[in-house]
Design a protein that fits this description.
Layout: H1 27-62, E1 67-75, H2 96-106, H3 109-119, H4 125-128, H5 137-151, E2 152-156, E3 162-169, H6 172-229, E4 234-235, E5 238-239, H7 240-277, H8 287-291, H9 293-316, H10 321-375, H11 377-412, E6 418-422, H12 435-460, H13 467-474, E7 478-483, H14 487-496, H15 518-521, H16 526-542, E8 551-557, H17 564-577, E9 582-586, H18 593-599, H19 606-611, H20 616-619, E10 621-622, E11 629-631, H21 642-646, H22 649-661, E12 664-668, E13 687-693, H23 699-707, H24 710-714, E14 716-724, H25 726-729, H26 742-747
Parallel strand pairs: 7-14, 8-12, 8-13, 9-11, 9-12, 13-14
Antiparallel strand pairs: 1-3, 1-6, 2-3, 4-5, 10-11
Length: about 750
């Protein structure tokens, strides 16, 4: 069998308790575990929750109410529309960092000090306090500023340029007054800062303008001197040489055009004249010839003769004298036209020659101008540089002069970057303390703290409380859970006990009061039913030892006062009631509690029988009602080596004899942890039951005790949880809560 510390502990449940299931808990199981935790720890949770709620109520009762008023301002780095385009200090839209900077300015000590002085807040008990300690003005102002800063709140509204200024005070009117004063002071300081900045910039611009004016004069003077020295003349912003060169180019283009036109007219009229000399018709002509009055008159006559010639030829025939005269006149007019055209051709030739000559003269003048321009190119470049520098100084001076003019205007009419868009008004309700919020926080905080204390108690509650816990941790069946017998129940059983008519002999156990006789006095109690479970487990355990004719069962515990002696006596009484021959042996030689309870005075017993000073029959006592036998420990000789006595061959021989005489030999053994006597009984005890006090004995103690006695653990048949508080058990075993309800016992006549 595995040792307790080698057991695989699976499925640890809430608060340190275990279930035998090897599956992960689902939602239902988790809910049941949480419900079990609440049932176990609801008192501490409720107590801590009520305590925290009470603390919250006390805080609300004694806390001084405060009121918060808020004013809103909008901040933008853009100037007013009047000077927006001319401002020297104009900037782009503000970003988040700039707005945060403005918020820090609102919270600055300078604004706080100004508002404090304006409103005389150093005289207000809310800010200066009422302490008797004398303070200087500096210390007083520093303390008031610190309190003022703690009550001030400035934040950005969303992603806008709006800043909300909030201030808390014990008076709603004072809160609104201070919030508005902060906003007004902030805007006033912006205006004052802008005036100072404009003044500094204006002074700098004025100084700069004086220097620029001198530089402009020097640059203009340099241009004039250089032009005079190098004979450079300009007109309309351009040099004379450049103007002449441009004009010559224009004239050359015009001359070439006129020469080409004259040449074209000459060629045309020469072609017309050539046709006339070849006696060809001269219908084609040029525009100038058509405009000539002589040619026009001749052409008119030629047309009239041609018309008349056609008419007369038709009327008189082609050979008529009149028709012949008309042909002669027609030829004469044609010759006159050719002569006039030749005269025009000579005129065109003269015009062409003149145009050609004029073109050549202009071309020569252009060549001379180009040659002269190459000679003066270096001086002109220098001249242009000086003139460009002078123009730059003029532009810069004009720009600074314009800015200076704008700055002077702004100095007389400053425009702030911020303005109030919503002034603070006295609040109607207090801002703190917030009753609902404080109560909610205190209740939730108390609940969480109570749950924390409950979890801490669960973690520290390292004791046995359930069957599943025993079977999981010790890998041993839980034989029974013996209910706790309180004093009231024991007194009730003693009062209701029926008198017995059994005869008492010299070695008869005299019944008294107490838990030892609970099974006999109340056979229908929970205690009796639990002892029956132990008896069944004992019978099942002894069936595994068929090689032994009679059975010896040991009852032990980890530490003293866990009730092992009471359970051993009760099991013996139950076995005797059903007709079995039962002997109870008190082997707790150092603390024979059963011997003291049953025999009253010190009487010879086990020690004397082992030593051979008394026979078995001389030292055995009997209980006349149930007829179970009892072998006391013996006279108290203050024995030191009790483990040697129990491990001796004489002890084994004695118990072999008892095995033959009784159906069950129930041995009340010492606890495992303090002494080693129980380990010495392994030679004659067939099986063991260990008694654990419910809710008291630590798990580590039981494990340590069983680890120190591996042979006992190997022969362990069951664990008995004694002194079980059945009412409290419901909170630990929800699955079996109906089993412990009184109404189910009462149906079968059971009592408490």
């Amino acid at each position: 069998m595995l040792q307790p510390d080698q057991a695989k502990l699976a499925n640890r449940s809430f608060g340190g308790y275990h279930t035998p299931s090897q599956e992960e808990p689902g939602l239902t199981e988790l809910f049941r575990l949480v419900a079990a935790f609440v049932r176990r720890q609801y008192l501490i949770i409720l107590f801590v929750g009520l305590l925290a709620t009470g603390a919250g109520l006390l805080y609300l009762h004694f806390a001084t109410p405060t009121y918060k008023a808020s004013a809103k301002i909008v901040t933008d780095s853009k100037k007013g529309q009047f000077f927006q385009n001319q401002s020297v200090l104009a900037a782009a839209s503000m970003d988040s960092a700039e707005i945060e900077s403005q918020i820090q300015i609102l919270k600055s000590e300078s604004i706080a000090s100004s508002v404090i002085n304006d409103l005389h807040l150093t005289e207000s008990p809310e800010f200066s306090g009422s302490g008797p300690k004398p303070r200087s003005k500096t210390e007083l102002m520093r303390d008031v500023v610190a309190i003022f800063d703690s009550k001030l709140d400035a934040k950005r509204v969303g992603v806008s340029y709006v800043i909300e200024i909030g201030f808390q005070s014990q008076s709603p009117q004072r809160a609104a007054q201070i919030a508005n004063a902060i906003a007004d002071r902030y805007i006033l300081e912006q205006q004052e800062a802008q005036i100072r900045t404009n003044q500094l910039v204006g002074n700098w611009l004025q100084t700069r303008l004086t220097g620029l004016r001198e530089q402009v004069s020097d640059a203009d003077r340099a241009v004039i001197e250089f032009a005079s020295k190098h004979n450079i003349v300009s007109s309309g912003g351009r040099l004379i040489d450049d103007q002449q060169l441009s004009q010559l180019n224009t004239q050359l283009v015009g001359a070439r055009s006129r020469t080409s036109e004259a040449l074209a007219r000459l060629f045309r009229i020469q072609a017309v004249n050539l046709k006339g000399r070849l006696n060809e018709p001269t219908d084609a002509t040029v525009s100038d010839a058509l405009r000539d009055p002589i040619i026009t008159s001749l052409r008119q006559k030629q047309l009239e003769i041609a018309n008349r010639l056609t008419d007369w030829t038709t009327r008189y025939g082609p050979n008529h004298d009149a028709v012949a005269r008309l042909r002669t006149q027609q030829r004469e007019i044609q010759q006159s036209i050719h002569k006039e055209l030749e005269r025009l051709a000579e005129s065109y030739k003269s015009d062409y020659a003149i145009a050609r000559t004029h073109e050549e003269e202009i071309q020569k003048g252009l060549a001379n101008a180009v040659g002269k321009l190459h000679l003066t190119n270096t001086e002109e470049v220098k001249f242009r540089e000086l003139k460009s520098a002078a123009q730059s100084y003029h532009n810069l001076y004009d720009s600074f002069l314009k800015q200076y003019t704008t700055m002077v205007q702004q100095r007389s009419f400053p425009i702030p970057e911020s303005r109030v868009i919503s002034r603070a008004s006295p609040p109607l309700s207090k801002s703190s303390p917030k009753g609902r919020l404080i109560l909610t926080i205190s209740m939730l905080g108390g609940l969480c703290l109570g749950i924390g204390f409950g979890i801490l108690r669960e973690l520290m509650d390292r004791v046995f409380r359930t069957r599943d816990q025993v079977e999981t941790l010790l890998l041993t069946p839980c034989a029974a859970m013996i209910p706790l017998l309180n004093n009231k129940a024991s007194q009730k059983l003693l009062t209701n006990r029926k008198p017995t008519s059994a005869q008492h002999g010299p070695k008869s156990i005299i019944r008294g009061s107490g838990a030892y006789w609970t099974l006999v006095d109340s056979p229908e109690s929970r205690f009796a039913e639990a002892i029956r479970s132990v008896k069944l487990a004992m019978d099942a355990a002894t069936d595994d030892h068929v090689a032994r004719q009679n059975k010896i069962i040991g009852f032990t515990s980890s530490i003293p006062n866990e009730g092992k002696s009471t359970i051993a006596a009760a099991v013996a009484q139950l076995s005797a009631q059903v007709g079995e021959k039962v002997l109870v042996v008190d082997c707790d030689l150092r603390n024979p509690s059963l011997s003291r309870a049953f025999t009253k005075n010190s009487a010879p017993g086990l020690v004397e029988a082992i030593a051979g000073r008394r026979s078995i029959d001389d030292v055995i006592w009997r209980e006349p009602t149930t007829n179970f036998a009892f072998l006391p420990a013996g006279n108290n000789y203050q024995l030191s080596h009790t483990s040697e006595i129990l491990a001796s061959d004489l002890t084994k021989k004695l118990f072999d004899n008892l095995r033959q005489r009784y159906d069950y030999v129930i041995v009340d053994l010492p606890p495992l942890a303090p002494i080693v006597d129980t380990r010495a009984t392994i030679r004659f005890v067939d099986t063991y039951f260990i008694v654990i006090e419910w809710g008291e004995t630590k798990i580590e103690v039981v494990k340590h005790a069983l680890n120190g006695a591996p042979t006992i653990y190997e022969n362990l048949s069951g664990v008995i949880l004694n002194k079980t508080n059945m009412k409290s058990l419901r909170r630990y075993e929800l699955d079996r809560k109906e089993y412990y309800y009184n109404k189910y016992y009462r149906r079968y006549g059971y009592t408490q």
